[in-house]
Amino acid sequence: MAEKDPLVSSWFGVEFQGQVVGAFRECTGLGSENEVVEYKASGPRGEFVIKKVPGRLKWNNITLKRGITDSMDMWQWRKLVEQGKIDEARKNGTITMYNQQGEPVARWNFINAWPSKLTGPSANANNNEVAIEELEITHEGYERVS
User: Fold this and answer.
1) Which of 11, 40, 84, 140 could form a disulfide with 112 if both were Cys (CB 3.0 to 4.6 A apart)?
2) Torsion angle of C-alpha atoms 122, 70, 111, 102, degrees rounded to 10
């Protein structure tokens, strides 16, 4: 089998049921983990053995960062949660990773996602940097589909 080169990302496209759409430069937190449960048992010869088995599954929150624009979609989505309208805020969606040629190279589908945190840019008129906004998404599961 030929060895494949690792995928190189240039940017991430995000779409949540057509309402929150954007291009992001950074995406972190894609992953899941299980708690580790230890229990004591006896081995075949009566010796003391500690067994480790997977416990509860936990989905990591996803953090997306982009340069701030005049788009208000993330702020409007977060406002639903602030107003207690969580059922309305829950969205299924997709994060797509694009390469430098703008071709999709990986895709993750999410279910029941909602914005648990939204951070606006830090203001500093003395530097010459792009102002960044950050969105943290909580969800109930995802899968990599390509």
Assistant:
1) 140
2) -100
- Is the Cβ–Cβ distance between 135 and 94 less than 8 Å? no
8-45 per-position pLDDT tens digit: 668 888 888 876 678 888 899 999 999 999 999 888 88
H/E element, 80: helix 73-82
**The CATH number of the domain where 19 resides is what?**
2.30.110.20
Asked if residue 21 is part of any domain, the answer here is yes
Could you tell me if 126 and 142 are in contact, meaning their C-beta atoms sit under 8 angstroms apart?
Answer: no
Residue 105 burial by CB count (10 A; 0-12/13-18/19+): exposed, middle or buried? middle
Q: Find out whether 7 and 99 touch, Cβ atoms under 8 Å.
A: yes
